[in-house]
Amino acid sequence: MTEGGNGGDDRRSGNGRYGFRRRFRLRSRGMVVVEVAAVALALDQITKALAVAHLGARPVELVGPLRFVLVYNTGVAFSLLSGLTVPIVLVVVALIGLLTRFARTVPSYTAAAGIGLVIGGALGNLADRLLRPHGEVVDFIWTGFWPTFNVADACIVCGGAVVAVALWRAGRAGEGPEPAGSPLAGAGPGRSSAENGPSGPSAIGCSGSSAQARAGRGLSCP
Fold first, then answer.
1. Residue 109 Cα distances to 17, 65, 79, 115, 175, angstroms
2. Which residue has the higher pLDDT, 109 or 105?
3. Mean pLDDT for the chain?
4. Quick one: which of 66, 109, 139, 154 has the most CB atoms within 10 Å?
């Protein structure tokens, strides 16, 4: 009894092995966010440097309408809201701060990876605005049916989708079956416990040898 009480106290207070496990999960998910963001940022900056060095004014044809075309823009993702560099920088910094706080409460490693992608992509475009001469972002991926974008833009969109799916799955997992101790745990769909047949001592007394004994005395089961 004492051990169970201490376990409950540990869960409530955050101390002991339960508190350690919770802190470890939060810390490890935070590391997932940092690592994924670092990889996304590095990949974005490397591909942009290669685009600036090798593309020039001549596009590179790939498959179908897909091609590499070097474009500079002062807007946000996919060349939107061009010319608003300072407001965009302020908004991006605020969003990165909010995502960093949200990353401490994510329900899974998948959601942590998605947040890392979004943060890494945001940092990639933010680095262009702060470090390039005119605050322009390098875009080089052209599909023919979508504005020109870069790896950072793709990370932001894919990361947002990953977070949305992870949160949706976490919500579905929270709507599980009734607990084992619930009166409706063994009931079928749309049926109450009374409709699912007798239970308790009377049902137990009508099974096996007890039922045969009642039948021999001319009695019937309840």
1. 21, 36, 31, 10, 20
2. 109
3. 74
4. 139
